């Protein structure tokens, strides 16, 4: 039955402090797969700021069986406790208003918990996930991030390893001296082994480091451990942050909705972001492991020591922590290559979100289900906002502001206003206009005109701030535009400038120029905006060759490809012969980093093209997009045909596999070269040979994907399965590569057949995503098959997963967020599937919120 009341909308403007605070919590767990008992002793005290009392005691609780409860040792009778679906209430007259001891026992069923929130079981092991609101599935509590308490935990269970936050007191007992909100609580118990190391902090304290995995996986922890130690050092040298416990633990679990979780002293990770060996993990996997280990570790200060007052402030910890992990990865690898990869992601996920029905501000103002707001906007755009702040105030001021942030707010639950104030105070500046980045959704669109006379260039920028759901009539934001001025010989005609556009229309004059320079605008992608400029292909080719800013060098090639592909798709234009020549020049230029060359050679994605065409006011045709990319790739391959085999053999990395950026860069260029070779080679012989000879997953998988794309991979698909059937993470890749690389007309059938495979364990989020999201998000033309079969297949599986795991279902609905881009027939077919989902009688509030917004 549909719940009789629609779930409430939670609003930032309704925030109130809690009626009570919590000082200490003692938890006792008696673990059992179906009947776990949890006893809690919680010391409450009154909140003197809440003078509107007396207050009932209202505690959050979900799916709990209450066994007993007492206040100051007096048992509460059944009729004194009001229980509903969201928690319980005790009337004010039974609640000493200035403080009391609450004791309570509940029973939960971890085995039946398929939502993977709260306490659940994954492959026989107990584990928890409490962010955002999972702790209330463990016991009755004030489950909100501004309530911070000191936790002591005791775990009893029939398993060898019993873990929780803080310091290990032995015998399953743990004490965490740092007050924390309940969302950072964690418990793990099971048959686990640890991979150990240690770290000496900047002040000479010894920290024990442990990575817990399933027996047999110990050999796959070295890279994660190395990444952890480098992250710890980096946070000391770059932010002055020292680790604050004597023990830091990471646990790898197979069933996890997200990437990883920063629980205090006990990070829990999706096993795909911990486990790696050369034979089973790709270069991309290594890069993600390094980045996510760093991200979770950095949360210890930006998230845990300073946390969020309420969930509207999520970007306070996430935007900043993403920004920090991006800085770290840039330092560890190549800044240019990292920046390009991050911007590709930003455009593919965040710009797409900001342009559609799910657009919301970096700090949202309302939600129904907070789990739906762990989005590209909060994370990635949140990080971009900090990057802009960094460039506006400069590196020294940035560091000053961060020092002040840690000094002023350590131990507190904070807001974006606190964050902004720290910058205003430390840098003596007014950021009220800048703060619009947090409250206005949508990607600003910038245009520029150039006027050269005498020795002066006048640049005039305009800014428009598009309407988004629920937001119209926006104000101009502060857009920092790093700009270079290139002479005809490629040198800098004038020093680079940071032009700060803080109005709807603004001009800047650059004096003392001899010739009209070629502009290099928005260097390093200095703001998350769409820039529209009049530019010729000759200028693009010039920038691709000469720009000293590698991001803009890449951007020039990207922009060139986008405009050509649009012309081919919309106007039947022929391939401009200058483009393959420009690509060739980059491909064979040994002065350029191979990883960078690979990025230049990769054409804009099908989805990026669909978005670009839609923005020109036309419905994109997925088959035409696919065909145009093929044609252009073939033209590049033909231009390069004399070079390809030489490049391919020169780029081989001799000796044993190493995951470092340099070797990975060569492999990525070699993979791009292989894809080109396969366009001009009839039988895919090179890919077949690479598949057979590969000693690492990067090369094995790139060969397999190339073969499947050319419909030549049947034997290799089988061989890959036979080789890897015992390795879950590799079999995830096996599912993905088949649906993502399948030719468009076959993709739905391939996906459908794979759902029948005995290894399609759909309740495991990694496996589900590998097939269902792999199909809907990575095979544009396959998903958008004209007859709607792809939409129906996708919706069937969303419907199937929703009652089991609402959080992952709701996230996946994003596959439909672009439905209004397409032609009337496809639009109707998608709308019908969305409506079918929306009409389900028992739809979760997670999915209902997302589908409702997509349809509106
Ligand atoms: Zn995070």
UniProtKB/TrEMBL annotation:
The family database entries (CDD domains) matched by this protein are listed as: M1_APN (cd09600)
Q: Is Hydrolase one of the keywords UniProt gives this record?
A: yes
* Cofactor(s) of this protein: Zn(2+)
This enzyme catalyses:
Release of an N-terminal amino acid, Xaa-|-Yaa- from a peptide, amide or arylamide. Xaa is preferably Ala, but may be most amino acids including Pro (slow action). When a terminal hydrophobic residue is followed by a prolyl residue, the two may be released as an intact Xaa-Pro dipeptide
Cross-referenced Gene3D superfamilies: 2.60.40.1840, 3.30.2010.30, Neutral Protease Domain 2 (1.10.390.10), Peptidase M1, alanyl aminopeptidase, C-terminal domain (1.25.50.10), tricorn interacting facor f3 domain (2.60.40.1730)
For this UniProt entry, the molecular function terms from Gene Ontology, in alphabetical order, are: alanyl aminopeptidase activity; metallopeptidase activity; zinc ion binding
Where do the Peptidase M1 membrane alanine aminopeptidase domain residues begin and end? 223-434
Tell me which residues make up the Aminopeptidase N-like N-terminal domain.
26-169
InterPro entries assigned to the protein according to its UniProt record, in alphabetical order: Aminopeptidase_N-like_N, Aminopeptidase_N-like_N_sf, PepN_Ig-like_sf, Peptidase_M1, Peptidase_M1_dom, Peptidase_M1_pepN, Peptidase_M1_pepN_C, Peptidase_M1_pepN_C_sf
What family does this belong to? Belongs to the peptidase M1 family.
Q: Does the keyword Cytoplasm apply?
A: no
Ordered alphabetically, the record's keywords are:
Aminopeptidase, Hydrolase, Metal-binding, Metalloprotease, Protease, Zinc
Query: From its record, what is one biological process in GO terms?
Result: proteolysis
Protein name as annotated: Aminopeptidase N
Q: Which residues form the Peptidase M1 alanyl aminopeptidase C-terminal domain?
A: 538-856
Q: What is its EC number?
A: 3.4.11.2
Domain Peptidase M1 alanyl aminopeptidase Ig-like fold per the UniProt entry, residue ranges:
442-533
């Amino acid at each position: 039955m549909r719940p009789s009341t629609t779930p409430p909308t939670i609003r930032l403007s309704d925030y109130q402090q809690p009626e009570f605070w919590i000082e200490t919590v003692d938890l006792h767990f008696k673990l059992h797969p179906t009947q776990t008992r949890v006893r809690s002793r919680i010391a409450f005290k009154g909140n003197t700021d809440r003078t509107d009392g007396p207050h009932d005691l209202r505690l959050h609780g979900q799916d709990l069986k209450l066994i007993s409860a007492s206040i100051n040792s007096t048992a509460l009778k059944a009729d004194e406790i009001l229980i509903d679906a969201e928690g319980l209430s005790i009337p004010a007259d039974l609640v000493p208003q200035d403080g009391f001891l609450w004791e309570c026992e509940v029973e939960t069923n971890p085995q039946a918990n398929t939502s993977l929130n709260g306490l659940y079981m994954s492959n026989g092991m107990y584990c928890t996930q409490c962010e955002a609101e999972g702790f209330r599935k463990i016991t009755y509590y004030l489950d909100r991030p501004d309530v911070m308490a000191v936790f002591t935990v005791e775990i009893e269970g029939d398993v060898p390893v019993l873990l929780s936050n803080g310091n290990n007191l032995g015998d399953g007992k743990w004490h965490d001296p740092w007050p924390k909100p309940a969302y950072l609580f964690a418990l793990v118990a099971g048959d686990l082994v640890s991979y150990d190391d240690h770290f000496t902090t900047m002040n000479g304290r010894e920290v024990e480091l442990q990575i817990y995995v399933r027996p047999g996986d110990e050999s796959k922890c070295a890279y994660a451990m190395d990444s952890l130690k480098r992250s710890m050092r980096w946070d000391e040298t770059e932010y002055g942050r020292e680790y604050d416990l004597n023990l830091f633990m990471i646990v790898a679990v197979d069933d996890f909705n997200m990437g990883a979780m920063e629980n205090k002293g006990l990070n829990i990770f999706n096993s795909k972001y911990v486990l790696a060996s050369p034979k089973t993990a790709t270069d991309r996997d290594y890069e993600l492991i390094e980045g996510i280990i760093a991200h979770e570790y950095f949360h210890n200060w930006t998230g845990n020591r300073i946390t969020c007052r309420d969930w509207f402030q999520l970007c306070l910890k996430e935007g900043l922590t993403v920004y920090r992990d991006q800085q770290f990865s840039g330092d560890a690898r190549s800044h240019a290559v990292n920046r390009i990869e991050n911007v590709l992601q930003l455009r593919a996920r965040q710009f797409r979100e900001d342009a559609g029905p799910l657009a919301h501000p970096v700090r949202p103002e309302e939600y129904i289900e907070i789990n739906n707001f762990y989005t590209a906007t909060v994370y990635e755009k949140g990080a971009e906002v900090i990057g802009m702040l960094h460039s506006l105030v400069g590196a020294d001021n940035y560091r000053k502001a961060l020092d002040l942030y840690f000094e002023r707010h350590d131990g507190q639950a904070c807001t974006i206003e606190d964050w902004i104030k720290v910058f205003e105070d430390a840098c003596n500046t007014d950021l009220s206009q800048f703060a619009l980045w947090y409250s206005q959704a949508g990607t600003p669109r910038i245009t520029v005109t150039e006027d050269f006379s005498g020795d002066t260039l006048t640049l005039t920028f305009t800014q428009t701030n598009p309407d988004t759901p629920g937001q119209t009539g926006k104000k101009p934001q502060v857009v920092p535009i790093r700009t270079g001025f290139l002479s005809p010989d490629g040198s800098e005609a004038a020093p680079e400038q940071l032009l700060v556009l803080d109005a709807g229309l603004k001009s800047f004059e650059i004096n003392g120029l001899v010739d009209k320079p070629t502009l290099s605008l928005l260097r390093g992608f200095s703001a998350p905006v769409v820039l529209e400029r009049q530019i010729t292909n000759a200028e693009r080719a010039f920038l691709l060759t000469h720009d000293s800013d590698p991001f803009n060098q890449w951007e020039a090639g990207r922009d060139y490809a986008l405009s050509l592909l649009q012309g081919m798709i919309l106007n039947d234009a022929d391939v401009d012969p200058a483009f393959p020549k420009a690509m060739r020049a980059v491909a064979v230029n040994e002065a350029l980093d191979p990883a960078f060359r690979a990025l230049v050679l990769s054409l804009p994605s099908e989805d990026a093209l669909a978005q670009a065409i839609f923005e020109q006011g036309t419905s994109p045709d997925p088959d035409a997009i696919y065909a145009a990319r093929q044609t252009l790739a073939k033209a590049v391959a033909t231009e390069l045909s004399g070079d390809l085999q030489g490049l391919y053999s020169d780029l081989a990395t001799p000796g044993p596999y190493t995951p470092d950026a340099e070797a990975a860069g060569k492999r990525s260029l070699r993979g791009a070269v292989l894809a080109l070779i396969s366009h001009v080679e009839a039988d895919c012989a090179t890919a077949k040979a690479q598949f057979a000879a590969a000693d690492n997953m990067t090369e094995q998988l790139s060969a397999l994907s190339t073969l499947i794309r050319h419909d030549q991979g049947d034997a290799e698909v089988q061989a890959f399965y036979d080789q890897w059937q015992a390795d879950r993470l590799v079999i995830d890749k096996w599912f993905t590569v088949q649906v993502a690389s399948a030719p468009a007309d076959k993709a739905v059938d391939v996906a459908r057949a794979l759902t029948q495979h005995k290894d399609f364990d759909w309740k495991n989020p990694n496996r589900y995503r590998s097939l269902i999201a792999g199909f809907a998000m990575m095979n544009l033309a396959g998903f958008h098959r004209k007859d709607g079969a792809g939409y129906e297949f996708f919706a069937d599986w969303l419907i199937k997963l929703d009652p089991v795991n609402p959080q992952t279902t709701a996230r996946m609905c994003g596959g439909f967020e672009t439905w209004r881009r397409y032609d009337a027939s496809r639009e109707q077919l998608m709308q019908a599937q969305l409506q079918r989902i929306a009409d389900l009688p028992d739809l979760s509030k997670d999915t209902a919120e997302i589908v409702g917004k997509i349809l509106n």
